[in-house]
Structures are given as C-alpha cells and as structure tokens.
Design goal:
210 residues; alpha/beta; Rossmann fold; 7-stranded mixed sheet; Protein-lysine N-methyltransferase PHAECO_LOCUS3410; transferase; SAM-dependent_MTases_sf; EC 2.1.1.-
Length: 210
C-alpha cells in the first residue's frame, strides 16, 4: 500500500503552535477552536454510541489526540461518566482542561503520546484524525504499525476502536487493521456526488479487538 507524503500536520511543533493560538482565542473570546471534520461527524459518532448495545454510560472511553476535547465535552453532556482525553500536545491538553472546567465537567485530561503507549486499559478508544496525522509523519508505515499495536494492547477484550479518517478509505483501513481488529460497523458520513458517482470525504469505522 502506498504511503502518504509527510506533512507538517504530522509534527508536534505544528500542533503546539496551533493550540497555543487557540488557547489565546479561548481566553480572549471564549472560542474553543475548530471541531475537526465538523460537528456533524461528532453528532453521528455520538448517535452511534448512544444506540450501541456494547457501550454504556459508565464505559471507560478514551479519546486519543483529543485536541480541544470537544467530543468528550459532548459525551459528558450526554451523560457519559468515565471519560479520558489524551494528546501529545501539552497546549491541546491545557486548552481542553480550560474548556471542560468552564462547563464544570469532570473529564480527565493528560499529555500522552500514543506511539509510546497508553496509560491504562479502555473499553472504547476514539480517534478522530490522530491516525491521519501519524500517517503524515516521517516513517509512516512504522508509526502506523506502532499505533495499531498500542491501541490493540490498550483495549479490553471485546473493546472497540472508533476511528474517523479523511486520508484512508474503509477498505484501506480494513486492510491496515486486519491483523489485530475486525470491522463491525461503519458510521455513515456525509456523501457527495460527482460525475454520477457517490463518494464520501470522510470514513468512520468501528473496529473490534480480535
């Protein structure tokens, strides 16, 4: 499988600078910053979780590469109680804490690089864009394989990974995760039509640990 070209989006420096600016905007204007892939994707993921028969309100849920933590904020507002946000950008974690504290929400945030391992076991791992960023780093194949191994190790038996990507199709994700995971669901995403063909800009898959 052909790898993606490296990009500044795959570097810690880029994200530290971006979230430094977003902290400034939040402090001065109350703007929490960008919701990656849009609020519609967040709504669709949460709707799927609410309707799932394997995820409960007290399930241990970790969002890796949580950024400003807005997905976790929405989950907390939906009544989920065991929420953890991880990001390798200290500025992202600082921003996420400020946003959650302003809304008096109990969400645990900590700085953590998924490629160096996760601190606990979880029932649900959520990823919206982190695997994409890793795919744009130097040595992407090696880094992707580390990611897959780490997530597999950190999930409970029968745990699920919910992953949203704008770089990889469903078939490509299935191929990459096949050794450790089995796809059990696809969350519908907004589609476009061009030249008589229908396609999706974003892929959102649910994988269960083998």
């Amino acid at each position: 499988m052909e790898e993606l070209e490296s990009s500044e989006l795959g570097t810690l420096e880029y994200w530290e600078n971006r979230y430094k600016d977003e902290i400034h905007n939040f402090s001065n204007h109350g703007d929490p910053g960008e919701v990656w892939f849009g609020e519609d994707i967040v709504d669709r993921v949460i709707r799927w979780m609410n309707e799932s028969d394997i995820i409960e309100k007290n399930s241990k849920i970790v969002d890796i590469g949580c950024g400003n933590g807005m997905l976790l904020v929405e989950l907390a507002n939906e009544g989920y109680r065991n929420l953890i946000g991880l990001d390798y950008s200290e500025n992202a974690i600082d921003l996420a804490r400020k946003i959650a504290e302003k809304q008096n929400l109990s969400i645990e945030f900590m700085t953590c690089d998924v490629l160096k391992g996760l601190p606990d076991k979880y029932e649900v791992v959520h990823d919206k864009g982190t695997y994409d960023a890793i795919s744009l780093s130097e040595n992407p194949k090696e880094q992707r394989e580390k990611y897959i191994e780490t997530v597999h190790h950190s999930l409970d038996e029968m745990g699920v990974l919910i992953i949203t990507s704008c770089n990889w199709t469903q078939n490509e994700l299935e191929e990459q995760f096949n050794g450790k995971f089995q796809r059990t669901a696809t969350i519908p995403t907004p589609q476009f039509k061009f030249g008589g063909k229908i396609g999706s800009v974003v892929t959102c898959c649910v994988f269960q640990k083998k």
